[in-house]
Design goal:
The protein has eleven helices and no strands. The chain has helices at residues 10-22, 26-38, 46-59, 62-74, 81-93, 97-109, 116-128, 132-141, 146-158, 162-174, 181-194.
Length: 195
């Protein structure tokens, strides 16, 4: 490319990063990103950042993912919902639920709208991290959604917090939401165990 006097742009680098990710060469993708970062004249776009955040997620590099997210914010990029989701998911995979929750709270503070993927990841983090109050707070803040309630009930039951699982299940039914088959089976098992 350089021999033809063409200067690579963000789309070229994004294609290279994506190819490295598809080949499971996530460390190489990060190395390329860091090389691009050193070029002070290069202008990053959201797609390039999100592609490298996927590499961080695969490698469970939660601290690097957070650092990249802060870079994105500092550069003035907008509509970062997907980027926040990638960082929260990376924290979840790295088993860092409190950091995932902090990123979520920062996201809300920045007036970036969470979506269903954000909430599912944060709910799983709250369950795994025994963050029960935060879990209830998130469920109370969101519009009633069967998918979120199912994830919460299932996670709570599987992690042994049956009382809170039952409370969330009751609230789910009172909200007119339909539990899925897995949730129904888990709740039936819990009832049978009590007898």
């Amino acid at each position: 490319m350089k021999s033809l006097d063409h200067k690579p742009d963000a789309y070229t680098f994004n294609a290279l990063l994506s190819s490295l990710n598809k080949a499971d060469r996530h460390h190489k993708a990060l190395e390329l990103f860091e090389m691009i970062e050193r070029d002070q004249t290069f202008q990053f776009n959201i797609h390039l950042y999100n592609t490298v955040l996927m590499s961080c997620s695969k490698l469970r590099l939660w601290d690097r993912a957070i650092e990249i997210l802060w870079q994105m914010e500092a550069s003035g990029l907008s509509d970062l919902t997907m980027s926040y989701n990638l960082v929260i998911r990376t924290c979840e995979l790295a088993r860092k639920p409190t950091f995932a929750l902090q990123v979520y709270k920062h996201m809300v503070h920045q007036k970036c709208s969470p979506n269903i993927f954000t909430y599912l990841s944060v709910i799983r983090c709250c369950v795994r991290g025994d963050l029960w109050e935060e879990l209830e707070e998130i469920l109370n803040q969101t519009m009633p959604n069967a998918t979120l309630y199912n994830a919460a009930v299932q996670g709570l039951c599987l992690h042994g917090n049956v009382n809170l699982g039952n409370k969330v299940y009751t609230k789910m039914l009172e909200s007119g939401l339909q539990p899925d088959v897995k949730t129904q089976v888990l709740m039936l098992r819990m009832i049978r165990k009590r007898k």
